[in-house]
Amino acid sequence: MSFAHLWLRSSSIPRDVDRARFATRRPAVAGSSTEAAVLADLDSKIPREFSGRIWLFHSARPTHWDYTGLDEGEAWQRYFWNRNCRPGPYIRFPNLGISPVICSGNSR
Question: Beta strand 85-87 with 96-104: parallel, antiparallel or unpaired?
Fold first, then answer.
C-alpha cells in the first residue's frame, strides 16, 4: 500500500497513489507491481511544476515488496531525484516507512 501527501504552504493535499488496485478492492498478487505502473501513477497525481514537500508513506516490510515484485519506496526515490527533489529525513516505524521529499518545481 502506498500513499503520498503533498504539503503546500499552510495546507496539504492527500493523494492516493496506487489507487486503481485498492479502489476496486483487488488484492495485491505476486508480481503485481511494476516500476512503469508506479511512475505513471505518480505522474498522473503530481504536477511536473509542483513545488513543496511530499510525504511518502509506504510499507517497510521487505516481504511485502518481495511478494509484489517491486520496492516502491526505492522506485519513488529514483523518481523524485530525477525530478530534482531532495530527500528529507527517512522515518521508519515497524512496518511503515515515511520518506519526505522537498521539490523545487524545476523538474529536469
Answer: antiparallel
* Rounded distance between C-alpha atoms, residue 69 and residue 104, angstroms: 31
**Nearest-angstrom CA–CA distance, 63 and 17:** 20
Judge contact between 76 and 99, C-beta under 8 A: yes
Can you give the pLDDT at residue 24? 47
CB-based contacts of 18: which residues, under 8 Å, 6+ apart? 1, 2, 38, 41, 72
Q: Residue 3 above 50 pLDDT? A: yes
The reported pLDDT for the residue numbered 23 is 46
The answer, yes or no, to whether residue 21 has pLDDT greater than 60, is: no
> pTM to 2 decimals?
0.65
How far is C-alpha 93 from the geometric centre of its chain's CA atoms?
17
